[in-house]
Amino acid sequence: MENPSIFQALGKQRIEQLDGLRAICALVVLMTHLINGAYWFTHNINFSPSLFFKSIASFGHIAVLIFFVLSGFVIGYTTPQKFTWKEAKNYVIRRLIRLYPIYFFALFLTFIFTESTYNLLDIVGHLFFLQGWLVPVINNNLALWSLHYEFIFYLLFLIIWNLNIKIDIAIVVCIISGIFSAIFRFHPFEILGYFTLWLSGLWLAQNIENLKLISKRFISYSFFSSCLLLGAFSSQNILKMAIDKYGTSSSVLPDILLTTLVTSIVAALIVERKLYWYNLSFFVIFLIEVITVAYAWQQHTFDSLEGLQFGYQSVGFFILLLPFTLLLRKIPINWFKKLTNIASFSYALYVIHHPLIIIVYRLLKLNDVHTMFLVSAINILAAVLSLLLAWFLECYLHVKIAKKLKIQFQLN
Fold first, then answer.
1. pTM across the whole model
2. What is the pLDDT of residue 347?
3. I need a surface site. Which of 187, 244, 269, 327 has the fewest CB within 10 A?
4. Cα separation, 57 vs 359, whole angstroms
5. Helices (H) and strands (E) in the chain, counts
6. What is the arithmetic mean of pLDDT over 316-323?
7. With contact defined as beta carbons under 8 Å apart, do 253 and 243 qualify?
8. Per-residue pLDDT averaged across 242-262, rounded?
9. Other residues' Cβ atoms within 10 Å of the Cβ of residue 307
10. In DSSP terms, which residues pair with 131 in a beta bridge?
11. Long-range contacts, 361-365 (Cβ 8 Å, 24+)
12. What pLDDT shows up at residue 238?
């Protein structure tokens, strides 16, 4: 079956390396909940994931931040620059067609099989993407927290598009809002803070004409970028620890620390030369790493379970891997092609995998299991079922539904 890439569907040049990056992020989120699921449900065995798996599990949040940047880029890349009410109407309809058919199924799967207590308001709140604000995110599908932000980002883009607001100014305003969110617990500040990442992807898309897209043979700095991201993630979490100690529990400000870097990683995968801030990001992050290592060591962070859960151990990995990143930082872009098929159903995989994992665990009564071998086998089963169901929903069922809806609304 044809890969329904959004770039391909809208007649744009397909950027396979971004499809590959999207697939990697979806798989990381899946791995995160598989590891956490094993920890939550296996009470009769001594489940202690290795340092490697703990590191993977701690990257689930960072994968969502990359999704935000990619989402902003896709909207900027596929939406006409000139605002008209007709184009705005088509934009809204396309977004709703993209989100809701699969989202309805995900909510059905989430609420029908949950053991959590919920009421009609919780269902309505999730239907209108208000989870995490006016209603709590249901425990059966914690990944849905980001859909609330994503939906509001789509609406905020309409304002920016209509008023022709400069993206640079909007980013500055959102960074300031993110800083305020660390001082005052106010949800709109948090929304605008996270909007910084989305706007960074939008900025990159709107300036893409001034940057030459890479050729298929071009060698990117993806390995180097990954190690930078690893280090930035450690700094982010140590900064979060300091904010939680002296400010509010908002995690937006540490996430903003990664905005330039995450955008640079996306840029490094699509343009033929590195952008000017790329080298600067490396030196800034490396200096922060040195400081955070000293701070974490002084606070005995590396000795605590919380430190392992937050991924502080990756600081040491970053410094140890630094010499290798300088030698091995070039990896062919073609490597990402192998993951583009997974990217075609990454949205469905993201919204349905968590409740499906929980259903598998409960149906098979994994809490009575005493062996790690069976835990691993159940995890593999849950992962395979998630991938197969996601493919069916997005590559088959959603394609048919979207085609009929686009004909009904006279969309191309």
1. 0.84
2. 95
3. 327
4. 20
5. 19, 2
6. 56
7. yes
8. 70
9. 19
10. 135
11. 361/37, 361/41, 362/41, 362/113, 362/115
12. 66
Q: Count of CB atoms within 10 A of residue 379's CB?
A: 20
The span from the CA of 318 to the CA of 234, in Å, is 9
SS3 271: strand
State yes or no: pLDDT of 192 exceeds 70. yes
What Cα–Cα distance (Å) separates residue 271 from each residue in 21, 58, 200, 223?
15, 29, 15, 16
Closest CA to 129 of 112, 104, 97, 161: 104
Alpha carbons 99 and 398: distance in angstroms, whole number: 10
Residue with tokens 């060698």: 219
**Poorest-pLDDT segment among 94-103, 115-124, 172-181, 315-324:** 315-324
Angle at 26 (CA atoms; ends 23, 28), nearest 5 degrees: 110
Structure token pair of residue 186:
């106010």
Q: Do β-strands 219-220 and 331-332 pair in parallel, antiparallel, or remain unpaired?
A: antiparallel
Identify which has the larger pLDDT, 219 or 213: 213
